[in-house]
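This part of the workshop introduces the protein records we will be handling. The question running through the whole workshop is how a given chain folds. To make this concrete, we reproduce a full record directly below:
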Amino acid sequence: MVEWFDFATYGFLAPVIARTFFPSSDDITGLLQTFAVFAVAFALRPLGGAFFGALGDRIGRKKVLALTVLLMSGATAAIGLLPSYSSIGIWAAVLLTLARCVQGLSAGGEYAGAVTYVIEHAPADQRSRYSSWMPAATFASFSAAALLCYFLTANLPAEAMDSWGWRIPFLVAVPLGLIAFYIRQRLDESPMFQEVLNSATAAHAPLRETLRLQWKPMLTLGGYISLTALSFYTFSTYMTTFLREVAHLPADQVLMSNVIALAFAAAMAPVLGR
């Protein structure tokens, strides 16, 4: 959950980030630049999944899950500490982009590793039920991020929110990440992973073999996941900004609608997501 809380925070605070890192006479241009940086992380997620997936095959799932949560939390906290455009100019946007790159790599490794870990622990006839908790955790994380952003937006003056309030959700990543790291360090590797690791038939280069033998299913699955991700982020992230900046609805009301919708999605995922 920690990774997606960190990942979601950027999207919900896009208008403030635009004013902080991409000041422009045209608000739309600033928002487009902000979402372009947001998109950078998505381009790197497949690379993160491939790299950390291969690493997990060698050193174990729990070590990779612990590493990815540290990377995500560190990159998110770094965003909360970055100086603004008015302080260091274009370097503020450059550093923001680098932090988003690290977020994208770690998010790709996190989700792929977490799903693999859960499925390897699940009974053969219960894998869909167990894995349905992964999207549920994602929705719950987005809902929690929206709730914190709502609380800050509703209780801080606009000037305070633009000056320092927006940094709080990013800095919350530090204690959350340390707690998650502590928990993950104490997880047990799955019996399935231990069996494969000790097997003489284990693939020497699993990623290469998968790309060679399963490229068609991978393309199909990639297309499906792209469509679901596009729809999810359109309604959970872009629509939040659209309703605030274009439809001019109150920011706190828009964020609260996200809190409710995403909490409902989290509750329904284990029931309907199988």
Notes: The radius of gyration is 19 Å. The longest helix spans residues 27-59.
